[in-house]
Structure prediction request, 653 residues.
Amino acid sequence: MGKRALFIAIIGILLIVIGLSGLIDRLTHGMLNVGWSTPVPWAMWLAFYIYFIGLSAGAFLISSLVYVFGMRQFERIGRLALFVALVSLLTALLFVWLDLGHMERFFFVFLHPGITSPLAWIVWLYTLYLILLTAEIWFVMRPSFVRGSEGKSGKARLYRILTLGVRDLSPKALERDRKVVRVLATVGIPLAIAFHGGTGAVFAVTIARAYWYSGLYPIMFLVSALASGGALLTAIVAFLVPNGLGEHREEVIGLGRLLVLLLFVDFLMEIAEILVSLYGTAPAHFIPIQEQLFGPNWWIFWVLGMGMALVGPMLILTFLGRKSALWTGIAALSATIGFIGIRWNIVLPGFAVEELPGIGRSFMEPHWVYRFYSPTWTEWGVTLFCIGVGVLILALGFWLLPLRAEEASA
Amino acid sequence: MGIAIEIKSVILRMYEDLQRALQKPIHQRHWGMVIDTRKCVGCNACTIACKAENKLPPGVVYNVVIDEEFGTYPNVARRFISRPCLHCQNPPCVRVCPVRATYKRADGIVVIDYDDCIGCRYCISACPYGARSFDFGTFYTVRQTPEVAPWDVMPSFEYGEVVQREPGNPWRSPIGNARKCHFCLHRLEKGMLPACVTTCIGQARIFGDLNDPNSLVAQLAASPRAVRLKEELGTEPSVYYLL
Prediction:
């Protein structure tokens, strides 16, 4: 196990251990000790779920630069992008699974799906995407599995299994692999747009919440997916790949150039959304915005969202990142973290307005408190646990999988 | 004396309407309600009757009475909007359910199948009226007071089934489910009016078959005073308010 992989694994295990008590409480007591309530039914876990789904869609779409559009300059990070997409997807699914009141019934969505429900659509799309992504990763890595399967080491034995018996390395077979990857990656583009646009649609079709009910939402989801997924990938290449800043300088700076554009488009959409809502007099529209900008959690918008995710990285990338991989990496890391704030402010302000004026004062009981949400330890614990699982899978990938393309196949 | 006769007649009339509706095939009925805001005094008896009838735990509430205050002293007014589930004819909650656990019956009642609900809460987000609750597994007395009150662990008979909540078992429905008003379907099927209707001290709640032109509820719903909440959303509620 390389030093890097070990370091990442330790972080992952640490997060899992810290979060374990929250997870245990979640599994033994259900939703008894969560901070969300009936009036705020979706909260921290949902925010992290759409955050990780966005990272997955973004990383996957960036991998298509290599596997569909043949952009040579990113060739060496194509595999990493695909693997990051897989890890993010698994983390997201873990979040949303633990968010269900009855986790054990998740497969009902396959047995008797509600065909009018965007939530059902996206679960089906995630499933297709998971299959496609796994297949694409296998086809991309197969030559490396075959080459690495010689010898008696544990890794060689693992690779022998992972080849699934397909050991043909003739130019013809490699060409066939490349073609399959190209087809999968191409089909993956509309699929990624569909499942992440669909995730946006889950919110956008909700006529009950004026804050979400907007045609811009699915598009915003896609743009910020690309931006956040791109940022995560850039940060991983810069700081987690061994000698990433040196060896992968070109890729990091190249991704940074792409990132600044994506951040800018995302910024424009945020501004459009905010200004249009603030201009009007309808409380259902402007209260969620007002709450974000000037409410008690103002820092989520200003510090995480605007500062760390959008404006800060845009400035760093424009003025410092053009020549420096380090600054590009820093900007990307900042954006990766900051986007958590943007995701938070997609979910929670939706519940800032009472459905009927005065309903919040009509009744008072635990788990029935309007316009208030503060995550409990159970929620923090589960969150840390899920992120820890993702980090640990990432470490396993760094340790065991041929994430770096071989020069031969490049 | 006169008042007493009138009150009795409203209840009796609703009762007769109900029996007549039950004679018809289910798809010809359309259960609905008219709530007269001028008769509502804001006593919350409907909320309490519902809590008792359905053995609702803390945080699960099918009916609320919204208390609105208008104006400035000395010209002040209050209005009470008592809100059960409005049983929309185009229910936004039903469309978004990923597992078809919630659906609209042929008689217009929007129900939840507790054994199918996965607890995703999309319906709670999607309801424009805040009519759905999540069951977190709380109790009033279990682990709250030294003695567990018997009513706290009694089963309810929602949907004509014995619905037993089990303290400390989050895997057993209805804990972990979305829950909502069902117009006391289990009572209707036995020829009884919903608990909130029989308990209303001002006879502000009129219940019956909106498809029956001779029913009291249909006649009142046709009044020019009748409005429905958030009509502009196109949800077509089956509950009317007389302003």
Remarks:
- Chain B has one domain: 2-242.
- Chain B touches chain A through 51 residues (CB under 8 Å).
